[in-house]
Amino acid sequence: MSDADARLQPRKSGLTRRQKRALSRGAQYVVFVAAVIAFAVTADWGRLKNQFAQWDLVKQMFPDVITLALKNTVLYTMSGFVVGLVLGLVIALMRLSPVGPYRWLAGIYIEIFRGLPALLIFVFVGVAVPLAFPGTQIPGGTYGKVALALGLVSAAYMAETIRAGIQAVPKGQMEAARSLGFSHARAMVSIVIPQAFRIVIPPLTNELVLLFKDSSLVLFLGVTLEERELTKFGRDLASQTANSTPILVAGLCYLLVTVPLGFVVRRLEAKAGEATK
């Protein structure tokens, strides 16, 4: 090979693939550290402290932020989750029904309520329902309205999750149950649905986390002081004091619930993955 041909050949890098990956990771760490340092240097910590870290305001929020706001948030979330779970199971069974109109109605419901913003559902429950049915009161007052609104929103997602779980159960389970003399309905209730719920526990837990955050939309229903949840509670106090510290504290209270729930979701997903190996 001539000297001219040798110069035309591409030079081989002296780094191995592992060294290249290590170099890439090191560069990413450098960029991250540089971004953190730039933020720490350029941020006005004094103004941030005055606006978000007033300890006197934090003390004023306790214990009401826990005993009232967080308690209401949990109650709203759990009631909406129960309504959504029951309604979602019914819709999932309708989606799997051999009766055409049931499948069509379930599909229409899912597409509508999965496509509409949750805020519009709250407005619909709080305004449209009383106008459509004069004199009709939703049981439970504000708690009933929130449970219905959150349930309508979550049912569309839960229905698809539960349907996928039912279809993931091996068909042999149904066939074995029928061969033992079970009716189709009894086999579904006793054999298929319990197995399906074990499969869909992780995504349903994730839906619970989303509902916990969506419960903040209750403020659009017009609540009393005793019915306020975290966002409404923090927003009211922030407006009264012209300071954002209550908003920050309310956000931290959300994290007190969502972070452990997120950990539970990851653990459940890991166990489900180990069970399928």
Automatic annotation (TrEMBL):
Q: Does Transmembrane show up as a keyword for this record?
A: yes
- The source's superkingdom equals Bacteria
- Main localization of the protein? membrane
Annotated keywords: Amino-acid transport, Cell membrane, Membrane, Transmembrane, Transmembrane helix, Transport
Q: Where are the transmembrane segments?
A: 27-46, 74-94, 115-134, 247-265
Q: Does the keyword Membrane apply?
A: yes
Q: Where is the ABC transmembrane type-1 domain?
A: 70-265
Please give, as recorded in its UniProt entry, the membrane topology of this protein.
Answer: Multi-pass membrane protein
Q: Where is this protein found?
A: Cell membrane
* Membership in a protein family: Belongs to the binding-protein-dependent transport system permease family. HisMQ subfamily.
Name the UniProt record assigns to this protein: Amino acid ABC transporter permease
Taxonomic source organism: Streptomyces mirabilis
